Amino acid sequence: MIKVALLGCGTVGSGVIKLLADNKHVIARRAGHEVQVTKIMESDPEKVRALGLDDGIIAASIDEILNDDDCQIVIELIGGIEPAKTYIIEAMKKGKNVVTANKDLIASHGKELFEAAEENSVDFNFEASVGGGIPIIFPLKLSLAGNRIQEVIGILNGTTNYILTKMSGEKEPYEKVLQEAQQLGYAESDPTSDVEGYDAARKIAILASIAFNSRVSFEDVYVEGITRITPLDIKYGQELGFVIKLLAITKEEEDKIQVRVHPAFIPRTHPLAVVGGVYNAVFVRGDAVQDLMFYGRGAGQMPTASAVVGDIMEIVRDIEKNNTGRISCTCYLNKEIAAISKLKAKYYVRLLAKDRPGVLAGIAGVFGNHEVSLATVLQKDSNQGYAQLVLITDLVEESDLRSALKVLSEMDIVGAVENVIRLEGVSGHES
Ligand code: NDP
Ligand code: HSE
Q1: What is the mean pLDDT of each run of 10 residues along the chain (431 residues)?
Q2: How far is ligand 2, taken at its centre, from the CA of residue 131, in Å?
């Protein structure tokens, strides 16, 4: 029997207890040993009692777990940076293997954690930290290890995918849909981390580090959230055959790593376009395997517990074969992060411009002077002397587009630059 300690018995922690109990026999047969949670550290003991467990299992302090030589695996599900980081590193120093779902911690302090795992020859598994129940960490590290990964593009946040899907279907504004999502429990009362893209940024930092073998931290990710997306942009995008998604993107280009989170228009034929509601998906392109897509529930008690229990079972197998620490840190390179200003992409631009002769020629001239070639120019609704202009650029450098827009925003023929949205996955000209 393998003895396990659990730190944090909240949503995911209690899911792990349930899954280990419900599938106890099949887990034991597949992993080779029974897995038993013998200690739980939880600030609210009622959460432990609610699972039908008696008080004897509750650890009075972290030391009770660290000093228990029979406990071989620690599952960290308290979340946040501290004390989670200290607990994990101390557990590793005691020779314990660790499982976590803590994306915040890995995305900002991954290096320290992997070094501690390596120094102590223990396993450190974190499948649930990206995409909840979707297997993506082990597939990237193991099954796809023979490929040069070209890009990883994820819909990695269920809250924002739900909001954008609703806005697209029901033509409702962001604020109204957010409120509905909060009432239904799909969005948190403080939605900042989700809607500003920080949650997705943490997840893509973790995937980029694995895909490109270089440490990428949360702080390296260029981030834009969804708060500026309007029903009008969604409508115009739909008319052009696009679907709006908050994408988390990482690619390698000219030996640098692009890593960015922002809303993007993708063709409605792109595999990610059909990923709706709270679902997540990760699209991977490798030189040998070509296109792959992983789809499923990116959060929730039992989907996330599924990933945590899979990680525990993998460790049980390693313990059995005396082989822990087998898969060490994958970051053996030190690649540079590409600046967003150097990104080459196609863009959707919506401008309010004076509705009179010669204006279009003036605007096109400014773009031309800044090396920005236009693929499509559409004049949409007109109101009080101003017309909505929708422009799609050819492949251009972001800094050139920004310079052109700065000049335009100061011209009297332009009322406002209303929105700029990058295109992604546009065939023949992927950005
Ligand atoms: P919860 O807040 O539901 O659970 C955390 C539990 O840990 C709470 O009961 C909390 O108690 C307890 N806790 C916090 N700090 C301590 C401490 N120092 N000592 C003892 N107990 C403590 O969070 P989740 O279960 O939702 O998330 C856990 C981890 O899983 C996080 O890292 C999260 O990012 C990750 N994750 C969660 C997903 C989800 O769907 N929920 C999906 C993917 C990853 P109290 O509330 O009293 O502070
Ligand atoms: N808040 C996240 C989401 C789930 O909306 O997808 C936890 O990572």
Answers
A1: 98 98 98 98 97 96 98 98 98 98 97 97 98 98 97 97 96 95 91 98 98 98 98 97 98 96 98 97 98 97 98 98 92 96 98 94 96 95 92 98 98 96 76 43
A2: 8
Which of 178, 189, 194 is the pocket-test mutation for ligand 2 (most atoms within 8 Å of CB)? 194
> Looking at residue 12, which CATH number applies to its domain?
3.40.50.720
List b or e across 210-225, with b for residues whose CB sees 16 or more CB atoms inside 10 angstroms: bbbbbbbbbebbbbbb
Distance CA 422, CA 431 (A): 9
Q: Report how far residue 223's alpha carbon sits from residue 195's, in angstroms, rounded to the nearest whole number.
A: 11
Active-site annotation holds for 3: no
Report how far residue 337's alpha carbon sits from residue 74's, in angstroms, rounded to the nearest whole number.
33
- Total of domains in the chain: 3
Q: Which residue, 210, 217, 257, 260, is CA-closest to 109? A: 217
User: Residue 199: CB within 6 Å of ligand 2?
Assistant: yes
- Atom 4 in ligand 1: residue holding the nearest Cα: 10
- Which tokens is 123 given? 């396993």
Task: Give me ligand 1 centre to Cα 10, in Å.
Answer: 5
Instruction: Please give the distance of CA 368 from its chain centroid, rounded to a whole number.
Output: 36
Q: ω before 83 within 30° of 0 (cis)? A: yes
State in Å: Cα 14 to ligand 1 middle. 10
Query: Probe ligand 1: pick from 6, 7, 9, 11, max atoms within 8 Å of CB?
Result: 11
Structure tokens belonging to residue 167:
């806005």
Whether the CB of 161 sits within 6 Å of ligand 2 = no
Boundary-marking domain end, from 236, 266, 297: 297
Task: Find out whether the beta carbon of 13 lies less than 6 Å from any atom of ligand 1.
Answer: yes
Strand partners, 259: 250
Residue 345 belongs to what H/E stretch?
Answer: strand 344-345
> Which residue has 């970051």 as its token pair?
331
Look at the alpha carbons of 254, 256, 257, 259 in this order and tell me if their dihedral is positive or negative: negative
Q: How far apart are CA 259 and CA 119, in angstroms?
A: 29
Residues of the domain holding 42: 2-130+301-320
